[in-house]
Write a structure and sequence with these properties.
The complex is a heterodimer of chains A (195) and B (88). Chain A is mainly alpha-helical and 195 residues long. Chain B is mainly α. The termini of chain B are far apart.
Chain lengths: 195, 88
Amino acid sequence: MEAAPQVNPDRWVDDYGDSLFHFALARVKDRDTAEDLVQETFLAAVKAKERFKGRSSVKTWLFGILKHKVIDHYRKNKSTVYTGDLVHDPENIDAFFNAKGGWQTRPQHWQTHPEKSQETREFLDHFYRCLSDLPQRSADAFVYREIDGLSTTEICNQLNITANNCWVLLYRARMLLRKCLERFGFGGQQKDQIK
Amino acid sequence: MMNHWMFRCQDVSEKISLSMDVSLPLHQRMAIRFHLMMCRYCSRFHRQLRMLRKICGRIDGDTMPECDPAGLSQEAKNRLKAKLRSVS
């Protein structure tokens, strides 16, 4: 197990600067913004160094911080294109279904191939934008679960909610995310929007 | 045993989402599978959730292709080092 990292800025920048930068640049498409995110990541790491217990490698730890910085970046720079009636009433998942419990807007066949790198990048761009438009707690639950890989028990502790609440938040997040992604072209035809 | 929820896409979609987080009892898994055999839309929903998970799993360090072979410029590195020295 690796010992807690020494705060050695020169070493961090030389050892991890480029890979963190590539990671950020693949997601924000702008060198200046990517550089800012790397800087924010290092600064946050310096601030949080006492809490780093050495359970993961320094690199994994730094990437973990950067992942959240990227999400914060999208949240701060929300595009109004992505806001709108889609999440107008995020509490009301019932609107996705008709009175008989059938799909009001039928899920479409996604024409994306995430294994192709270019499509992954395009998908991720929309993914981050859609994620930033989710209600905060649903987005938090989703990020903890799917990006950080926490169990629902761990998420309950983080968000101070019951397991049932957690599952509801995750369900809403998934419903809204898939709908949002579909709206932005991953579902092919857009003919059956919610009336 | 037949479950009333297994005929409603809304209920099944909730169970599908739940199945991504916990292990459901066998009879519920069977009921979902039966519904998916009959319902292409819930099948798509199921595939989409799995794809989202797959994509999220790729949001990690070295799994993304590099979009720019050049890394940080030396100037940027020096700037970062100076900034970090000033706070550490």
